[in-house]
Design brief:
Order of helices and strands: HHHHHHHH
Structural class: mainly alpha
Number of helices: 8
Strand content: under 5%
Helix content: 40-55%
Distance between the termini: 68 Å
Shape: globular
C-alpha cells in the first residue's frame, strides 16, 4: 500500500494545531493565540470590539456558535491582542497583513491600547454551567473580580456589583 495517498500528501498540516483550545491549552501554550488566522468573522469581531471601546456603539459583544467553530480561540486571541505588548501586536498584524490589507486596524488597536484609560479584559472559558440568569450574573462577577485581582487592583467593585444585584433583584419582573 505504499502508493496510497494521505492528507499529508496534499496539505501542509500544522504540527502545533489544537483541535480545541481549552483551558489547558491556554495555560500550557501561552502563544497559541498568535497562530489564529484572522478570517472574515474574526475581523468583524475586531471591528466590533474597536467600536465598543471607542464608544461608537454602546453594547456588549456576544460570541456564539456551534461546538468546534473556534469561539474560544477567537476570544482568546482578541483578549491577547488587547493585553499583549506593542511588539506582539505589531507582529500579529504584520504576520497577517495580506488578510488585513492595510495597517488601519493595527493602528486603531495600537491607539486603543496606548490611550490614557486602561482596558481590563475579562475572559472566562466555557459556559456550560450557566443555566439561568443568577448563575450568569455570578459568573460575570467572579470573572471580573478574578481579572481585577490578576491586575493587582485592591478595590474589586464589591459595593457597585452588590448594589447592581440588589437593584436587579428588586425589579418587579
Amino acid at each position: 500500500m505504499s502508493g496510497r495517498k494521505t492528507y499529508r500528501n496534499y496539505f501542509h498540516i500544522n504540527e502545533s494545531y489544537f483541535p480545541a483550545v481549552n483551558e489547558d491549552v491556554i495555560k500550557t501554550q501561552p502563544d497559541v493565540w498568535k497562530s489564529y488566522y484572522p478570517h472574515e468573522s474574526f475581523i468583524r469581531l475586531l471591528n466590533q470590539t474597536k467600536s465598543v471601546l471607542t464608544n461608537s456603539q454602546r453594547m456588549s459583544i456576544w460570541v456564539e456558535g456551534a461546538y468546534g467553530t473556534g469561539k474560544s480561540h477567537a476570544v482568546l486571541t482578541l483578549k491577547k491582542l488587547l493585553d499583549c505588548s506593542n511588539e506582539e501586536l505589531k507582529e500579529y498584524f504584520d504576520k497577517y497583513y495580506s488578510v488585513f490589507g492595510s495597517n488601519d486596524l493595527y493602528n486603531e488597536f495600537y491607539n486603543l491600547k496606548n490611550q490614557q484609560k486602561k482596558i481590563l479584559t475579562v475572559h472566562r472559558y466555557g459556559s456550560s454551567d450557566v443555566r439561568n440568569d443568577k448563575i450568569l450574573m455570578q459568573s460575570v462577577q467572579e470573572s471580573i473580580i478574578s481579572a481585577l485581582k490578576e491586575q493587582g487592583y485592591t478595590y474589586l467593585g464589591q459595593v457597585g456589583i452588590k448594589q447592581a444585584v440588589i437593584n436587579w433583584l428588586s425589579e418587579k419582573n
